[in-house]
Design goal:
Order of helices and strands: EHEEHEHEHHEHEHEHEHEHEHEEHHH
Largest sheet: 7 strands, parallel
CATH superfamily of the largest domain: Glycogen Phosphorylase B
CATH architecture of the largest domain: 3-Layer(aba) Sandwich
Structural class: alpha/beta
Radius of gyration: 21 Å
CATH class of the largest domain: Alpha Beta
Amino acid sequence: MPRRIALVTPMLPVAHDQTRGRYIHETARSLSKLADVKVFFQQSRYPRLPFMAPRSYLYGEVGPDYQLDGVDVDAFSYPAFPVISRALNGHISSMALTPRIRQFKPDLVLAYWVYPDGYAALRSARQLSLPCVVGALGSDIHVRDGLNAFMTRRTIMGVDALLTVSEAMRQTAINQFGAAPQKVHTIVNGFNTAIFRWQDQAEARQKLKIEPNERLIIYVGRFVEAKGMRELLAAFQRMVQDDPLTRLAMVGDGVMKNELRGLIKSSGLEQQVYFPGGLPPEQVADWISASDVLTLPSWSEGYPNVVVEGVACGRPVVATDVGGTREILHMGNGILVKPRDVDSLHKGLVQALKQTWDHQAIAAAMSRTWDDVAVETLAVCEKVITQRA
């Protein structure tokens, strides 16, 4: 009999934000090949008032008819108020989660995102006398303060095992949140090897109608302040002044979209910037393959999947030296720069465009799949189940 695993998460791809939680979708899909997995997609439901909308991500609710390829999903929501209900979100969401998990009768609860969702999963698991494993993804450990930090520590101290996506995150969990070292397991993300692979740049550009002589920088991800959006535009503006053929593709969406468009217009860069929007993985791969360099100027990261995908497509990457990024990049496939530093980002991008790279060798060095992630994740789950038996 395969293990029954209840996977709890607030992050999955949705129509209004196709890039959100793609790595969790991939993990759940691969894990479903090895175990009987049901995904509980819990969403916070905010009052329909303009000032109540969250500021860090595109808000939108999906209904119980929500479906996702290769995954059995139960989508539901719980009432919440930005900031006001922060201390209670884990408790409230657990009340909706517990009866759903009870009905599924799993062997273990596996949650992604430490607080409030990991805490909700932990509460539900304990009420049902089940083991609980929580996976930390990035800012749910690196960007924590006040009440969030307190509840994050409480969750980490209570789980049977903690998964981190980089060794840097593992050390943060141990040193800053008091996690027992033997309970923290690093399982780095994989990538879809059928989609993110080396493609001929000229063919990709022809498909997307990009001129052969353009020097194209690509950013893929959410349009939020902490991704270094303003630093990227400031560095790019300098580059265009020196080389009018420099272009920037901003693939994604987010709460800063209108602000970014305004900054681009006021800087006179409208003809130099592509805005293809949020795209499915196949189209993202085309844009990466058409580029000369991918950049990720984040203030904080766990193990950034877009960096992995960029390298898998054979593109060099210029990224800030945060989280587990240096565990991916080295002299042969990218350049690390200082976070929140326009000068450092500008210098790194200019260098990357001038440097000669072996694109096929860059791509060939990447081979880790989501099936590898699923095997390692299930091994931790099996160990926890055995220990609690």
